[in-house]
Each structure stands twice: as structure tokens, then as C-alpha cells.
């Protein structure tokens, strides 16, 4: 069971996301992460779905996605050469003093940005692959994470090849 | 300027729709006002569920897209099981539903329900029209999506203000441009060649075919292919009629209530040529013991069906008809050993379907007599349960589209309204509805519709005063604890009479043929209440979860292996 990254182009219409997510729950496919947003074409959206399963299972996921009329392209880029990123915002309990300098040090090590500072807390923005975000999350846990939000993974193939190329 | 309701009527006429089945209500009043003078026939059913089943029966009998119409809220919700039925059996239907005005959407308005949300998993696609300017394009797309590729139901939800809003109708509409929907009809040439090679190599081939043959109009090609190669054919419930029952290559239906010959042949085969089928659990039984010795070629227009339930050796995505035409060209002649054909003939002789002549009225005899009287013709529409299985087993079908039954969903209450639709599609064919006393009562109110429009369906109730199939399972697997499956005696003829419909009660096998002939000779609808042996069972039977070669028969269990 490996995690597969599916890049999906869909028509940018109301209800498309519920068609896609409904399909996953109905057929018992487990979504690890899902990120949706606009893409280079104005009437399309791009969904990046990370789903765990063996190859036969993933094949069925792809085929079922392809059956949706609003789904234009489905690509499993897991075995391609690709770059991926995830962004997280983490609010950490960090009073002025030792705790705060510890948090700042960790932020530096992970090239995270501090985007908000308060009396009791700071908000970090960190970008990277999921392992990196897991790692900083673990380190910051000792200081007390107040809130954390992750975007889910997004990915592109390396080189000039795009999702629409066969 | 044209309003939405007028556009809808014009668009339906453009699509060649002559009859729709519907039920009015508050938000569709503007549409009904247009229907008042429209050159489209509207059949007023007595329950929306019957409207969708009738549209479905129309589509199955004709091959065209069936159309139904319901109001918002409860009307729309009453279409749900009919949409699921059509979706499971890949039947082209376009369902229109009323909706509260766009300004009230999401406000829990009177008779509002989120029908596009509700029907998401049971439609091929659905639309909520939010701009009247899109309406004509959406209707065009809906008919296209419903009737192409793997066919299926499409729902269009129409807010009331869309029906009354004005727009230019004459604005030319662009060609259908659905970049996410491009069904593949042509099978891959290399794959077809490979299939022909596998067929040439095989010693014990068998064809396992289903509804895909019917919906792609491929039965001519199927029979030609089978004749050329002499490969025996077994069909699913949905595939009945795609080869005439008297063709010696036809082994009968396979699966849970299939013939022993068909199930043994599947188990013994070294090559399974599966076309327009989906390896449903009622067909395969225990999936790893289904065709355990065979390489599998799977032809289907829906790529998602290939490899879904069973790993296949050679997939071909394409339309059954086009792929079969390609295969006929590539195969050289007879395929398989003479020994294999001898074995199949031996099974056929050893295991015919049983009929009982003890002077009592057996359900199988009713079907056999009907088949004889109609000479295997007419249109046979069934409900669900024992009545359906006996009809599937004992009727000698002669052509595609004469067998209409809810296969995938198994919807009780389907048959009677579907029979109405079948008659509208084929007014010159006798239409017989084979019903159980249980399932007939699920849409019995449609007696009002057939009486009003004088729709001459002939209703044959196989009346055993039980929910017979459930009772059978209780007998076999729950120690005869008949929990809530017994039904009281009902005077069905009296009910028919109350609607002005003639009927007759039959208790003796000697009167079966006369009753059927009376029904045929009657101009309008007719009801026959066959009081059959109450605890008759459907055999052979493969218990759920068993391999299909492990069949039970009356009073004994066989656990034989096909050789």
C-alpha cells in the first residue's frame, strides 16, 4: 500500500468537488489529503489527491474519477519525476524569552517564516514536503502548538511535461 | 422571446420525444401549462416512481431515451429508486424535476429537496439549471450523455423561475463539447487480434454475455460470432434475448439461478469471453472460484468495469457490437475441442430445467404456457423475486429487448409501470407483466393509469401469498422461520374490476392457457391471478457466497465440480 498522488483537472463548476469527494467515500477510497484550486486555464480547477492503496485499487480510483463527466484529466504521477510541496501555518505558544528564541531557532533551521508575533504566541509559515512539515510539527510540539493548518500536498511533474500531455 | 418551459418543450421535440411520463405539482405548473397544448403526449401516472419506471421500460423496449417529469421535493424524491434502477442497469433516461425558485434555493422552502445532491451517486450525470440561457444546451447534453457510451439516467433540476424566464430560443447552440466525456466505441485493433489468438488457442471456450449486447444492438454480431466459432453462450439476466433460446449454443442463464450446464461450463472453461457484463456477485458467486481455469477476455464500453471485480488477462474497451464485428473478421473458424462440445451436450441432456406435472398449479408451468402461447414473442416485463427468476428460466426468448427486468438493483414495483412504458414504445407487441403478489402491490395504484389510457398490459400475478424469494431463503437458510413474509389473500380481480379492468382467477393448470388467450383477446389491460403452489422454490440455486458449481436442487445439495 503506497500513497499515490493523483492530479485531476476538473471543470470549474459548482458541485464538482462534492462529486469527487462523494465518489471517494462511496467507493471506500481513503483520501489522505486533497487540495483544490484554480489552474492555468480559467474554466478548469486542479485537484491534487493523495490516496493510499495498491495498484489495482488506484487503477479503479482513476477509472471511477474518469467516469465523472466534469473530470477532464486524471494522472497518477506517483511513479513520475515530480516536485511536491505542502504549506502549513502553525501557531505556537511562545512567550518572550527562552521559549520564543527556541521557536525562532527551529523556524530558521526549517526556513520557516514567522508571519505573526503576539505576546504569547507566534505563527510560523513552513513549506516543504510532508516529511519536513511533520518534522517541524514534532519539534514545536514541546512548546505547545495552539493551532495548525496544512494545505494538503500539491505536485507538478518535473520538466516541460504537463498533466495534459499524453 | 421564449420562456424556459417553452424551450423545454421545443428541445424535447428536437430530441424526437413523443411521450413523457409525469406527475404535476406546484413548481412545474408553468411547464404543465405549456404541455396543455404541446404535441407531446403526457401520461399521468399515479405515483412518480411509476413515471421513472415507465420511462425506463420505454427505453429498454425501444432503445431510445425515456423521459419523465416530476415536481420538486416529494415528487423528485419519489424518482430516487427508479433512477438507481436505471443507473444499475445502464438504461438511458432523462428525468426532469421541478425545483423551488433560484432565490429560495437552500432556504428549506416548501417542497424543496436537494435532488441533484441526493441523486449524485445514482445518475450518470445531473444538472441544476441556474440560468435559462443554459437550458437548451443542458437538455442537449443530457440526452447525449444518457444515450451514448455506457448508457444511464441523467437528471435535470429546473427551478421555477427558470421555467418562466425569457431568452432567445433561435440563438444557435454550439455542438456538444464535453471534454470530460468521450466514450470509446472502437476496440483497440491489436487487442482484438490478441483476443482472436486466445480464441484460436483455447480448447474449452465459453461466451459470457450480458446487457451490453442488448444496449449496443450487438445480438446479430454475437450470434454470427458464436455460429462461426461454435462457442457456447451463457447470458446474464440482463442479456436474455440476445440469442434465441432454441439456439443449441445457448446454455441458458448463469449464476445464482442459472442452469447447471451454464455454471459447469463456466467452471470448466479454459477461456472466458466476457462481453458487456460486469462480474456481478449474483453471477459469479464466490469470485475466486468463478471460471477458475480460464483466461479471461473482457470487452466493455466502461473501462471502470474491467478489472473491477476480477483480474482479466485481456481487456478490450469498446462497444460490444464494434468489437464483435472485429472479432468475427479475425477468427478463422471453429474454436475449442469436440470433446468440450460433447461435454456440454451431455450436461444439457443430464440437467434440463425441471417441470412438474402433478395436476397442481406450478409457477413454472404458467411461464412455459405463456411462452408457448406467445411462441416466445411479445414483451415480458417482470417484477422482482421468484416471479422474475421463473420467467427468466422458463420463457423461451427469441429476440433482444423483449425481456425487461430490474437486474442490478432488484426493484420490486418496477415491472408493472415498466410494462406501461414498454407498451408505449411497442404498441403492436403484446406486453405481459409477470408479477408476484408482493411486488405487484408496490405499484398497484398504476391500475388507474392503465385504465385511464387503456394501456393493454396483461398482468400475470404469480400469487403464492408470500414474499416468495425471501420465504425461500428463510426456508433454506433460516430454519423455515417465516418472519414477516406471509401475505394475506387479496382479491386482485376485484381490485382490477374496481378500476374497470377485467380479470380472472386461475387455480387449476387446465385453465392457464385459456386465461392467457382471454387476456390476449381482450382489448385493454387484463389481470390474471394465478394461485400457484405456495411454497414452490426457484431451483437450481447457488447459496450466496458459494462457488457457482455448488448448486442446490429440490431436496438435495450437490457439490460437484464441472469437468
What does this structure look like?
The complex is a heterodimer of chains A (about 170) and B (about 575). Chain A has about 170 residues and is of the alpha+beta class. Chain A has 2 domains: about 1-80, Alpha-Beta Plaits, CATH 3.30.70.260; about 85-155, Alpha-Beta Plaits (2-Layer Sandwich), CATH 3.30.70.1150. Chain A has 4 helices and 9 strands, in the order βαββαββαββαββ. In chain A, a hairpin with a 3-residue loop joins strand 6 (about 115) and strand 7 (about 120-130). The radius of gyration of chain A is 19 Å and the shape is elongated. The two termini of chain A are about 25 Å apart. The model of chain A has no long low-confidence stretch (mean pLDDT about 95). Helices cover about 35% and strands about 15% of the residues of chain B. Chain B is built from 23 helices and 22 strands. In chain B, the strands form 5 sheets. Chain B has a 6-stranded parallel beta sheet, with helices on both faces. In chain B, strands 11-10-9-12-13-14 form a 6-stranded parallel beta sheet, with helices on both faces. A 6-stranded parallel beta sheet of chain B has the order 16-15-17-18-20-19, sandwiched between helices. In chain B, helix 7 (about 135-145) links the parallel strand 6 and strand 7 (about 155-160). In chain B, helix 1 (about 5-15) packs across helix 2 (about 30-35), helix 3 packs across helix 18 (about 415-425) and helix 16 (about 365-375) packs across helix 17 (about 385-395). Mean pLDDT of chain B is about 95; it is low at about 555-563. The interface between A and B is medium-sized, with 21 and 18 residues.
